[in-house]
Amino acid sequence: MTDSAAGRQEIWVEKYRPERLADVVGHEAIISRVESYVERDDLPHLLFAGPAGTGKTATAQAIAKELYGEDWRENFLELNASDERGIDVVRDRIKNFARTSFGEYNYRIIFLDEADALTSDAQSALRRTMEQFSNNTRFILSCNYSSQIIDPIQSRCAVFRFTPLDEETVRERIRDIAETEGIEYTEDGLDALVYAADGDMRRAINALQAASATGELVDEDTVYTITSTARPEEIEEMVTRALDGDFAGARARLSEMITERGLAGGDIIDQLHRSVWEFDLSDEAAVNLMDRLGEADYRISTGANEQVQLEALLAAIALEADEE
Fold first, then answer.
1. Would the CA dihedral through 296, 302, 305, 307 be positive or negative?
2. Which CATH number describes the domain made up of 167-226?
3. pLDDT of the residue at 151
4. Considering the domain 27-161, what is its CATH architecture?
């Protein structure tokens, strides 16, 4: 088996996970501050907030690797709060880990991923645990929405907000991995990976690995097929037809994306939201479209039928066009 073939059997997200803080890309200001904590061996409790795939977990693990070296796994407890939501996790697993002897190090690290999924009772218990074991344990909490973390916990943490990675950062990282793995790609294929990722490095790397597994050239056709993503021009054509009053044409494009190609309605909403200001729309038309998008997105999030809501969105746009 060739080295390249062996590499493809690994999960690239793990294979290319940063080993040191300096390897974390796209958040220079955050990494600089965290590095200063590590250098002084004076780590406070930390709260990392931001979207998925932006480096929160990678940063937490890099901190542990720099502090503990080869012993990092024994001194770093990672829990996923979305899987283990109850107060028992805080009372049992966290406390047992915090109480355990740990040799030469001043403190151990507990990393609680998706902490915004913890119940209010569990967060209250966590606050008390943070106080009780503050002399020998540091907590790193990761969440998508810091507003879901109770104030007493936030006030005990240094808060860092991770934003979606910019396109150039994602593109360069994907290019490096593709060249390391000996993957043939086109620039259009890289552009498609960056577009499909939408600032999520994990999604970009997973998409690259999935596209390369076909054994074909990684071009935009392969990427859009593998990631079940609509091309930007398809989204624009659908909206343009609705704006021109052609509801039947817009609905046909939507039906093709959802029914024939299996795209998720929520993903189409996200793509529409990203593309609104790239369309050649008047300010008034763009504002109206954003308003309709927000309404459809809310209804879908509460369980409404995706296709029905998107068709209603297109119908409303077409009706407004006919009235003008």
1. positive
2. 1.10.8.60
3. 94
4. 3-Layer(aba) Sandwich (3.40)
